[in-house]
Design goal:
The complex is a heterodimer of chains A (about 130) and B (about 475). Chain A has about 130 residues and is mostly helical. Chain A has 3 helices and no strands. Classes of the chains: A mainly alpha (about 130), B mainly alpha (about 475).
Chain lengths: ~130, ~475
């Protein structure tokens, strides 16, 4: 039996999590861009672009930018709304899932501590 | 002992009751224990400052404020108006908070990280059911590289998907940070997310090194009293362990200190000092310069260039020129080319300057890249602040305007706090200060690392800084677009 602690199965968890979160944010952004919820050139409003270049502003996809019609409403339905709820639902699911996983991990580690399996790794409590 | 202190003690160090009683007695009169101030003034000698740091309400009060504001910001960005200028969540984040953030790092080091609401929520989950595993070694070693990549990914995504221009995009970014903080806290002890994964943590680590404010231990006093308990690092009945895994006794950088005050509360010998020092002093005093820190500094040069460039009137012209090379009119593809060029160019230029420095003065390219990379941090900070000054002062009234609109009122007129000419002067002054600080830091680094050969090492670095200055001055002279 080796006296060295094994590599924690959680070693790559933060990286996987980070990649997952960034991918989720990018996909959500992309979905929103396609649904027309985001508009305009990066860093500029349509008016500013027109004021500076004298040309109509182009949206990221090359089409003329659509000004958001519901300036104050914002809650107006459509694909953007669905994406919004999907992201928020995904976030809640992620947190709930992680909390359950953390509880299960804690129970599992405590059981291993009680049976003395982790004594050589120097783990006394979690 | 109070209930809270008992809980902290349980989670911190398991010490025998007599040791805890002794510590409690010593902590009861911290003012009597303070050693003399030393060469740099110790702000903890000011009774009001000391009281704040010893108070059980610090930094909790600031954290509560942060939670309220950012709770409202997240609700507004996720459910409020979809137009940036009408959404107070977006205006608070991009016109007030983001521009003030670099300034706060300069004035108060990483204090923002102590009051940031995201890890606070993470700590709630940690207390609820945290596994409290130690942060993996690879994360400690390579965390900042992950931060570098995350920072680049977010900057790129911002321009391709328009995060800043969309309240929803801003909301998703904030949700991603919150999610990262909560999940990391659930599995790992202390603030592993802030320390190793948060892209803002990386930024704040670099920028806080320029600050005049620094929390350090009086090592002579630690030795004199023969301290072996390291309450400052491991926690005590008074406060939890250092959330960023620092050992104040050996700490020589602001990078991993968020001024939470836990060590000040825990140390029974009054060995902690809140120093007021020369700004940027740390760059030539740091014992072990790190390549990852230097790399982040160079990456930030590129990030600021991209942020400026994409808001300039000449940006569409640049895009069309790039389109001529790539053969496509797809804005995302052409922006990606501009983005990669802006990121790679400073890295290559610093590498070239460092190759010349090492050739002229002896030493290795990698070592010179690392030590002189630190000298870029003041210029990064100044360029970042100068860029954001335009948003803060040029459209600062967009924040109250969006709030008034949200309450159902009306707001007519400009959102500018100052006129463009005044802002430009302030931007140049800020840039000038950054240049002076970077040049001085490079000079001190060269002399401290190379001795008499320092001058020869310095010349290529100064040429590189001059190039960056020219690029920045050119960009700040161009008309710029607003965020809201």
């Amino acid at each position: 039996m080796t006296t060295h602690p094994k590599r924690s199965p959680f070693t790559f968890l933060p990286v996987a999590l980070g990649v997952l979160l960034i991918l989720a944010a990018l996909l959500a952004g992309s979905a929103l861009a396609e649904s027309g919820d985001m508009s305009g050139m990066p860093g500029m409003t349509d008016e500013e672009m027109q004021g500076m270049t004298g040309e109509p502003a182009q949206a990221a996809d090359g089409h003329e930018a659509e000004a958001a019609a519901d300036a104050h409403g914002g809650m107006g339905g459509g694909a953007g709304d669905a994406v919004n709820w999907l992201v928020i639902g995904g976030f809640i699911a992620l947190i709930a899932g992680s909390t359950l996983a953390a509880r299960a991990t804690k129970r599992h580690l405590r059981r291993r501590i009680l049976t003395g399996e982790l004594a050589l790794a120097g783990v006394k409590d979690v | 002992m109070s209930k809270r202190a008992s809980a902290v003690a349980e989670s911190a160090t398991a010490a025998p009751p007599d040791v805890i009683d002794e510590l409690e007695a010593a902590l009861a009169a911290p003012s009597a224990q303070l050693p003399p101030s030393g060469p740099e003034p110790n702000l903890l000698h000011i009774s009001s400052v000391r009281r704040v740091f010893h108070s059980r309400w610090y930094p909790g009060v600031f954290q509560a404020l942060g939670l309220i504001v950012f709770g409202a910001v997240m609700l507004a960005t996720l459910f409020g108006p979809t137009v940036v200028e009408d959404n107070f969540g977006s205006t608070i984040v991009w016109i007030l908070w983001w521009p003030l953030l670099p300034l706060s790092y300069f004035l108060f080091a990483r204090f923002w990280c102590a009051v940031c609401p995201y890890p606070v929520v993470g700590e709630w989950f940690q207390r609820l059911t945290g596994v409290d595993l130690k942060a993996p070694r690879f994360l400690k070693r390579y965390g900042i590289w992950i931060i570098d990549l995350t920072f680049l990914a977010i900057t790129w995504a911002d321009h391709v998907f328009g995060i800043v221009e969309s309240p929803r995009g801003t909301g998703y970014l904030l949700l991603a940070i919150l999610g990262g903080a909560i999940v990391t806290s659930l599995f790992f002890e202390r603030r592993a997310f802030c320390s190793h994964l948060c892209f803002l943590g990386g930024l704040s680590g670099n920028y806080s090194m320029t600050s005049s404010l620094a929390l350090r231990a009086n090592q002579d006093n630690c030795k004199k009293v023969g301290c072996k308990d390291l309450w400052c690092a491991n926690g005590s009945p008074r406060a939890a362990a250092c959330p960023l895994y620092e050992v104040p006794r050996t700490m020589d950088s602001n990078r991993d200190c968020n001024l939470c005050g836990n060590c000040v509360k825990s140390c029974p010998h009054g060995s902690l000092r809140l120093e007021l020092r020369k700004p940027t002093l740390e760059f030539w005093k740091v014992r072990k310069p790190r390549l990852d820190v230097a790399f982040l500094a160079v990456v930030l040069v590129g990030v600021v260039i991209v942020q400026n460039l994409t808001m300039l009137g000449i940006y569409p012209t640049i895009l069309s020129q790039v389109a001529g090379v790539t053969g496509t009119s797809n804005t995302d593809v052409n922006f990606t080319v501009v983005f990669l060029a802006a990121m790679v160019a400073p890295i290559l230029l610093l590498a070239a300057a460092s190759a010349a420095s090492s050739r002229l003065s002896g030493g290795s390219l990698l070592r010179d890249f690392t030590i002189f990379g630190y000298a870029l941090i003041p210029l990064d900070l100044a360029a970042h602040m100068a860029h954001n000054l335009f948003h803060l002062l040029g459209e600062g009234l967009a924040v109250p305007r969006s709030f008034v609109l949200w309450l159902g009122g009306a707001w007519e007129g400009s959102t500018a706090l100052l006129n463009t000419a005044t802002i430009e002067v302030l931007q140049y002054l800020m840039l000038g200060a950054g240049i002076a600080a970077s040049v001085y830091a490079a000079y001190r680094i060269a002399h401290s690392a190379k001795g008499t050969a320092g001058w020869r090492a310095l010349v290529p670095q100064l040429l590189f800084v001059a190039l960056l200055v020219a690029a920045n001055v050119y960009m700040f002279a161009q008309p710029m677009g607003h965020r809201a």
